[in-house]
Amino acid sequence: MSDRTTEGAGTSPKRGSYAKGVAKREETLTRALEVIAREGYRGASVKELADAVGLSQAGLLHYFNSKEELFTEILRKRDEQDSLAAGLDINAAPDHADMRDGFLTIIRHNADVPGLVQLFARLSVDAADPQHPAHRFFTERNTLLRSVFAEHIARSQQQGTLTDRIDPDTLARVFQAVADGLQVQFMLDPDLDMAAVVAALFDALGTPSGDQR
Amino acid sequence: MSDRTTEGAGTSPKRGSYAKGVAKREETLTRALEVIAREGYRGASVKELADAVGLSQAGLLHYFNSKEELFTEILRKRDEQDSLAAGLDINAAPDHADMRDGFLTIIRHNADVPGLVQLFARLSVDAADPQHPAHRFFTERNTLLRSVFAEHIARSQQQGTLTDRIDPDTLARVFQAVADGLQVQFMLDPDLDMAAVVAALFDALGTPSGDQR
DNA sequence: GTCTATATGTTGATAGAC
DNA sequence: GTCTATCAACATATAGAC
Q1: Which residues in chain B are closer than 8 Å to A171, comparing Cβ atoms?
Q2: Which of A59, A110, A160, B43 could form a disulfide with A55 if both were Cys (CB 3.0 to 4.6 A apart)?
Q3: Structure pTM?
Q4: Which domains are assigned to chain B?
Q5: Which nucleotides of chain C are near protein (any atom < 7 Å from a CB)?
Q6: From the DSSP assignment, how many helices (H) and strands (E) are in chain B?
Q7: SS3 for B162?
Q8: Cα(B148)–Cα(B174) distance, rounded to whole angstroms?
């Protein structure tokens, strides 16, 4: 966030090495993401993560000013990857099938990265404190996600494929809550099929005429 | 786990001066509950809590073998109080209005105790590890809650006041997820009216004929 | 039963060699 | 840019006095 220095493509070794640092930072982030996704997260310390990515604790903190910044950046990158994977973007045209499928895709993907689910949940709690470095990240992320979702919902309601007995903003909130809440259940019981539950809710809220199954 | 003496069904006080210790333990628990509810929880240490309840750290740990046991017991007591407050008990007769009202009452109450919401959320995450002392507490609690809820739901569906386009167990899971997820949103934005969202969902899932509003 | 004192561990962060 | 070494801060748990 602070170090937004764009590259100064390697003309001289000095300045070139700066761009390399940025690249390495990205690589480290990606690597950390993979490790947490695969091996899980249990209140991981910087040292644990450093070992996992093949750096010393000090070496890892060289790229991030603090532990919290590190973890926040990991989640940011995860979002980046997820929104690409799901094709559910702010710029995407709102469409009912897109919404449903995009949402289910993300949720299905979550089941493959339990460590990230855990990190996300943990940081959500810590970030409740307005002083926490990740507080803004979460509030903004949640607000954005809901507004995108509400748009899709409104569209679906206009199409008549989704019940209009609840207003779009509230329903968007519900879906977000379901997603987060199911992750809590999933952490306790990794066998839970989160996507199936969400799909069932979609169907229950869909209008009989616009049945998606 | 080792010291089950104070555990078990509280039928009659055990023998001798032992009973006084149990009573004090209960009192301490209640006091800790109040403090957290009122003043909040931010990864509170045993010492912080000890200060708050007017004991030294060692004095507090005298009643609980470990920090985790202490926090788990706090949540257990909270459940105890809540289920009394809501009248939503395993023994209560399943009825649609009861379910809706009981559920909303609990959720409304949560808004008054943000510290407990935070403690609960935090411990939920930590307890994801099967080795965590609170792991069983959460799995069993969740399973029980859902089964009670599923019963109420099935009843409502038979009465025709709730849609039957989703099966009771799944819908129970949805409601639990909504409750947990809304708490996450609430932590980030204390102005959120959780009960209103849940009420809207109830209404959206209710049959037009059995409208509750 | 509750305290003080302390053992023992971990954490995140920094300084400085290379 | 990355390491080793070290730091202070703080945690929980325990021992022993009263």
Answers
A1: 200, 204
A2: A59
A3: 0.90
A4: 1-63 (1.10.10), 67-205 (1.10.357)
A5: 1-5, 10-16
A6: 9, 0
A7: strand
A8: 14
